[in-house]
Amino acid sequence: MAGMMGQSDNRTIKAGDNSLDIIRKMMFRMLPIQVLFAAVGSVNGLVSSYFATNYVGIDAMTAVGLYNPFTLLIAAICTVLAGGCAIICGKYLGQNRFDKIQDIFSMDLLITAGLALVITLIVALMGAFDLTGMLTEDQEARQVLNIYIMGQAIGILPYMLSTQLAPFLSIESMGKRSMQAGLVYIAVNLVLCFIFVQVMALGAFGLALSSSLGMWVMFGVELQYFLSKRSKIKVLGGSANLSEMAGIIAVGFPGGASALYLTIRGLIVNGLLDRHTGVAGISAFATANNLLGIFWAIQGGMLVVARLLISVSVGEEDRSTLVNIMRVVTRYFIPLMIAVDAVIFAFAVPLTYIFYKDTSQSVFSMTVWGIRILCFCMPFEVFASIFSCFEQINGNQLYVNLLALLDGVLCVAGFSAILIVPMGTNGVYAANLLNGVVCVLFVIVFAWVFCRRMPRRLEDLMMIPDGFGVSEDERIDITVRTSEEAVEVAEKIQEFCLSKGIDQKRAYFAALAMEEMAVNIVEHGFTKDNKDHSIDVRVTHKDDKVILRIKDDCIPFDPKERSRVFSPDDPAKNMGIRMIYKIMEDIEYRNTLGLNILTVRI
């Protein structure tokens, strides 16, 4: 018996490694779409920066920088709603409650539309009645800012609604629609900027109007899917039940609080720059940030991918997958960001030439150093933000709010106030880098205090509750890549069930069910395209129950529909699947995040 259990442990470890490989491939498959969507706003900033510096003037670039805190405030509201919905819906996915997802979708759109209309009115009034004096002491920059925010107000409604549609497109496995919408937006914004700014000379208003109209087009492309017959989630479906609203805000607020703190931080830093470095400092800081926003979108995409997968794993109480998600972040995502940073640092001067041609201007050197220093904040932010996201999903509000306060306001604003006098704009850039170091130290120290010992493993840093999921000896993980491995599944599962005291009948049916499904996926799913596929089989034993879960990355395939197919010419066709549905009482299937997921409880 000891030898047999040792053999099972080895198989589990090997399967765990394979499971990590599956998660890595899935996360990198989802990443480009999420990065592109996260980059949409950054492309807007980059396009605005280019046309502002080359065709309007430095005051227009100052207006872009001064408006950034408003952009962050709106983003904070969107993050609360979208983040809360994504996390709660992810848990409902883990529980197979699609009806609840529909209700949340309807309510989310209703609330977002109402908030967007109110914000649009406030922003428009600020521009129309010159209520922006608190943002800058420079009268010329203020006049340009008033014109700029009038154009931006037109795009607030479609921007806010679009941010809410994105996570639901991912749930529908339609992330490509977000990519299409983002590409359309980039093209429309670029063409309109050329027409409004370069040809028609509409100045700052043309910059903002181009972005706003592009947002309307992007929103239309995303919305069209939810109006089609293909969508399971309907715009007019479900009920806008406000009972979930408090939970969504509570879960989403920590993530939104970060953006809210960034708004406050932006106002403080802009004030310091306005006082100590003038228009040149604000313009350089805004230019560096807008350029790096394209690369920050990589970090934003990483966060979205991790958040959705983490929330689903929490709903499933899948402890090992949670750890593997964090392993992908530390082993692959962070090194990727470091490599990107090295390239940015090397090309800082050529990148600055895109916006400023005169190297003798102080704004040129300020921008170069901004690009060089700020880029190295990214790996620290990836590390801290993913851990914050994990603790947010697990309800550790103290952790999340403390980290958001440090990252959002205290460190950057505090270090900037200390360093800006002796170092100028470089002091603000250095403050951002020091902020990243402090946030990483916070993650380590908090886990040290919680665990009462120095963290040595990812599990220690994650602080997963002891009662979460099942222990390693109460589950078995099997990866299937060939038909031969599919046939061997039955023996491994039956051996595991019997070792846990499961009666022989249930052990036999559990083994038979998973073998039948694995063989069926290999024969029908693996051959539909030229891609490499794998199957992740997990069996868990909890409270004398056996839970069987099988995941694959093949084309969508609902075995329940196949079980209904009966051919008089071939009575044996689909007999195995039909038999499974007769002998098993609780079978759930869903397709999400590009995966087929079948759960069987015995």
Which term fits the overall shape?
globular
Give the amount of beta strand, in percent. 5-15%
Tally the beta strands. 5
Radius of gyration: 26 Å
Task: Give, in spatial order, the strands making up the sheet with the most strands.
Answer: 1-2-3-5-4
Indicate the mean pLDDT. Answer: 81
Residue stretches low in confidence (pLDDT < 50, at least 5 long) are 1-17, 564-573
Q: Number of domains in the coordinates?
A: 2
- Helix-residue proportion: over 70%
Distance between the termini: 25 Å
| Sheet of most strands | 5 strands, antiparallel
Task: Summarize this structure as a short list of keywords or feature phrases.
single chain, 602 residues, mainly alpha, Heat Shock Protein 90, 2 domains, 5-stranded antiparallel sheet, 20 helices, 5 strands, 75% helix, globular, disordered N terminus
Q: Describe it for me?
A:
The chain has 602 residues and is mostly helical. It folds into 2 domains: 10-461, no CATH class; 474-601, Histidine kinase-like ATPase, C-terminal domain (Heat Shock Protein 90, 2-Layer Sandwich), CATH 3.30.565.10. Helices cover 75% and strands 6% of the residues. The protein is built from 20 helices and 5 strands. It has helices at 2-56, 58-95, 98-128, 139-153, 156-171, 175-199, 203-226, 245-276, 278-316, 319-346, 348-353, 362-374, 378-393, 397-423, 425-451, 458-462, 483-499, 504-524, 559-563, 575-583, and strands at 475-480, 535-542, 545-552, 586-592, 595-601. A 5-stranded antiparallel β-sheet has the order 1-2-3-5-4. β2 and β3 form a beta hairpin. α1 (2-56) runs antiparallel to α2. Mean pLDDT is 81; it is low at 1-17 and 564-573.
